[in-house]
């Protein structure tokens, strides 16, 4: 049986990290975009009422959270791609 290399372990770790970050992104936006989610209509109505009053804080907070998570995921994916590129050159 072959030993797992440090690069392979790191690759697996990065894949898992990217998946977790994507899941966090999905959970953050899911209630807003999926009409079948039980909270969808309530959130939409709440967001619209606040926006009509000039309060965009709910929209902004979701955007900030998703932006932060997306930036983290991009870093992870860049490292993963670089690792795979180097692995292909070995």
What string, H for helix and E for strand, traces the elements in order? HHH
Radius of gyration: 19 Å
For the report, how would you describe the main beta sheet?
none
> Which spans have pLDDT < 50 for at least 5 consecutive residues?
none
Indicate the structural class.
mainly alpha
Number of helices: 3
Helical content, roughly?
over 70%
In total, the number of strands is 0
Distance separating the two termini: 21 Å
Shape: elongated
Average pLDDT works out at: 91
* Residues in β-strands, percent: under 5%
Overall number of structural domains: 1
Explain what this protein looks like in three dimensions.
The protein has 90 residues and is an all-alpha fold. It has one domain. It is 82% helix and 0% strand. Helix 1 packs across helix 2. The longest helix is centred in the last third of the chain and has 33 residues, at 57-89. The mean pLDDT is 91.
List keywords for this structure.
90 residues, mainly alpha, 3 helices, elongated, coiled coil
Q: Helix and strand layout, with pairings?
A:
Layout (H helix, E strand, L loop, with lengths): L5 H28 L6 H13 L4 H33 L1
Helix pairs in contact: 1-2, 1-3
